[in-house]
Design goal:
Blueprint (H helix, E strand, L loop, with lengths): L2 E6 L4 H11 L5 E7 L27 H7 L12 E7 L7 H5 L5 E5 L6 H9 L3 H6 L1 E6 L17 E5 L14 H12 L5 E4 L7 H7 L3 E4 L1 H4 L4 H9 L3
Parallel strand pairs: 1-2, 1-8, 2-3, 3-4, 4-5, 5-6, 6-7, 7-8
């Protein structure tokens, strides 16, 4: 069965909490898009506004995030649901240890944000075994980015995430049909590789994505903007 992962682009902590509450008990994991306003134009929780260059964790942070980092509270409903963090940020490598304090089961880097590929590969290879045993690592790639950039990293990651459009950091964006070709190439080259798709996934595109080889569908507006979230998630789960 295809894995359905609701995607949350949280305006603030209350928005994050409310959206998790909507899908708690319906899915085992949600994706949280963390946007810093530097790598992408938008800013999302835990940042209160677009971050400036420099150490973005010295200020501009939601108080709940600070308490989570200090182990004074946990993520909303952490007892009932797991999290994957989609790091649409410029500092994912430098602040990797901070992001792990949110307790994610998966962390996704964006290949367009990591700089030199060889250096990034060395970073991935240097992650300690305890972290690798507890957190799956994925790498996302935009439609306009050549697939060859990600091939050297396959041995170091657990899955890839094909972004459905180059306009990332937003929801409700249409799917670029170039993504179908990328998934097909990935599937032919790496038969067992888990492939997620994020952006542009809806009831029209989902079946085509699955046909080309996608195994995970990351879905935002097509779930949260529907009148019946329970029925919608079930419909996506029943696709083949």
């Amino acid at each position: 069965m295809i894995e359905i992962i609701p995607a949350i682009l949280p305006k603030d902590y209350e928005d994050l909490k409310n959206k998790i509450a909507f899908v708690r008990g319906l899915v085992p994991i949600v994706q949280i898009d963390i946007c810093d306003g530097i790598f992408v134009k938008t800013a999302s929780w835990p940042f209160l506004s677009k971050a400036e260059s420099g150490d973005i964790f010295k200020s501009n942070l939601d108080e709940h995030f600070s308490r989570i980092l200090n182990e004074e509270e946990g993520m909303p409903f952490w007892e009932d649901i797991d999290f994957e963090l989609d790091l649409l940020v410029a500092d994912a490598i430098e602040n990797f240890d901070i992001y792990t304090k949110l307790g994610p089961k998966k962390i996704i880097f964006h290949i367009e944000a990591v700089g030199n590929i060889e250096s990034f590969k060395e970073f991935l290879e240097g992650i300690d075994m305890y972290t690798r045993d507890n957190i799956q690592i994925g790498v996302a790639i935009n439609p306009a980015t050549p697939l060859e950039q990600i091939f050297p990293l396959i041995s170091c990651i657990d899955f890839v995430q094909c972004m459905g459009n180059d306009k990332i950091g937003y929801q409700g964006i249409s799917l670029d049909e170039e993504v179908y070709k990328k998934i097909k190439i990935f599937r032919e080259k790496y038969s067992d590789l888990p492939i997620a798709v994020d952006i542009g996934v809806n009831k029209k595109t989902a079946s085509l994505l699955i046909k080309e080889g996608a195994t995970k569908l990351v879905i935002g507006s097509a779930i949260f903007n529907t009148e019946d979230i329970i029925e919608t998630i079930q419909e996506f789960k029943n696709l083949d």
